[in-house]
Write a structure and sequence with these properties.
- About 55% of the residues lie in helices and about 20% in strands.
- It has about 170 residues and is an alpha+beta fold.
- It has one domain.
- A four-stranded antiparallel sheet has the order 1-2-4-3, with helices on one face.
- A hairpin with a 2-residue loop joins β3 and β4.
Length: about 170
């Protein structure tokens, strides 16, 4: 009889603990919905800032030994988007070189990790833009170790937030 009572009580305690955790943190579905809403809003702000539909373009954020690179490419048939991507990359490369990271701050609705360091170390960083067949890439290069950490923090955050390719 004692075994039977323990058998019923343990699952009941576990179930009530799960219910309390769900109330405190939301269900996995609610958490995903909040995250999806934040992602959709970020994509909207990105489209406003870049002039390119974020759902039909592809970002890559790669950390490299000397810094990293950002790639943005449009759908093959969208030549207007390709032109806007190339123009956008030239604008942000110039802004970043001045220590101005307002555009990523706008897109992500707050300060982006790594940008304080990149701003402070901007004289040790180069931002080089090249056209690609479907968009552009920006190589971010430095030999300064503090700047390199900032660049890597920036790229890792971007990769995570945009659900993008890269390493």
């Amino acid at each position: 009889m004692k075994f039977f009572i323990v058998f019923l009580v343990v699952p009941a305690i576990a179930a009530s603990r799960t219910a309390v955790q769900a109330q405190a943190h939301g269900t996995p579905h609610e958490h995903r919905a909040k995250h999806d809403t934040a992602f959709v809003e970020m994509q909207r702000r990105g489209q406003n800032a870049m002039g390119v539909d974020q759902s039909t373009s592809a970002h890559t954020f790669e950390a490299l030994a000397y810094g990293g690179r950002i790639v943005l490419q449009a759908a093959p048939a969208d030549t207007a988007a390709v032109a806007r991507i190339r123009a956008h990359f030239r604008v942000i490369a110039s802004a970043f070189a001045r220590g101005d990271f307002a555009i990523p701050g706008f897109v992500h609705a707050g300060e982006v990790p790594g940008t304080r360091v990149m701003k402070a170390r901007r004289r040790a960083i180069r931002f080089l833009v090249s056209d690609l067949p479907l968009g552009a890439e920006m190589r971010i290069t430095t030999q300064d170790q503090r700047a390199l950490r900032g660049i890597r923090d920036f790229l890792a955050f971007q990769r995570r937030e945009h659900h993008a390719d890269g390493k």
